[in-house]
Amino acid sequence: MDFNSVLLAVLVLGAMGGIFGAILAFASKIFYVEVDPKQEAVRECLAGANCGGCGYPGCDGYAAAVAKGEAPVNKCVAGGAEAAAKIGEIMGVAAGDAEKMVAFVPCSGTEGHAVKRFNYNGPQNCQAAMLFGGKSNMDCRFACIGLGNCANACQFGAMNIVDGVAKVDREKCVGCGACVNACPKKIVKLIPYDQHVMVACSSHDKGAAVNKICEAGCIGCMKCQRECPVDAIVVKDSLAMIDVSKCVQCGHCADICPRHIIKIHNPVAVLKKK
């Protein structure tokens, strides 16, 4: 190979690299967008999960809104109180108290308790199963499908499928709401972290119908409503519902529920209130 040809090629490529580098450097100066130092400081305080739990398009979007004074400093659910305090210092405002929320799946229709309409062997996706067989592969049209859309959407490993039903690890959950948005049945809810007594059922079918298809469904017997000492429970459309603003978490409703679908997530916390 001719040495001069090789040298010429190297020189041409080097010259082209230099020219393109100069063009890029010039363009970066022309199109440079100055970032508010406060925005960068706020961004450093965030968890970096880009979960959208704050209601803004990722951490950068939230940091920009905070820096402009358009968003409160305590909306980063993944960062929690620690992030809120740091951002408050940067912005010169009090962080305030933001109630911690966690996801909750009100369904107890695990395998062996609920009747299946058919065995689904298609793509492991709740939306696909709904398209294939209507609202559910279960006889209960309100039941968790259990194919993991919510678990796949969770960036924190807080959601898992156990015996065919989505379960939440409350200690890992940051309350970002990604699972709520991912659930095609819209049965996943956000509840206060300190609320330990909840009805683990979503069915609005009549009691007789529930008895035929699920051993762990609410039958709307109203026993919990009648015996709640603070009138925090009402049975509406055949389903018991707890008003968390009234509930004192005595746990009496869980003790007397004949179907055992009122669950206590933290028995120690409830016991202390008795």
Task: Give an account of the 3D structure.
- The protein is elongated.
- The model has no long low-confidence stretch (mean pLDDT 87).
- Helix content is 37%, strand content 11%.
- It has 11 helices and 8 strands.
- Strand 6 and strand 7 form a beta hairpin.
- Strands 1-4 form a two-stranded antiparallel ribbon. A two-stranded antiparallel sheet has the order 2-3. Strands 5-8 form a two-stranded antiparallel sheet.
- The protein has 3 domains: 37-91, 3-methyladenine DNA Glycosylase II, Chain A, domain 3 (Orthogonal Bundle), CATH 1.10.15; 103-189, Alpha-Beta Plaits; 194-274, Alpha-Beta Plaits, CATH 3.30.70.
- The protein is α+β, with helices and mostly antiparallel strands.
How would you concisely characterize the structure shown here?
This protein is α+β, with helices and mostly antiparallel strands and 274 residues long.
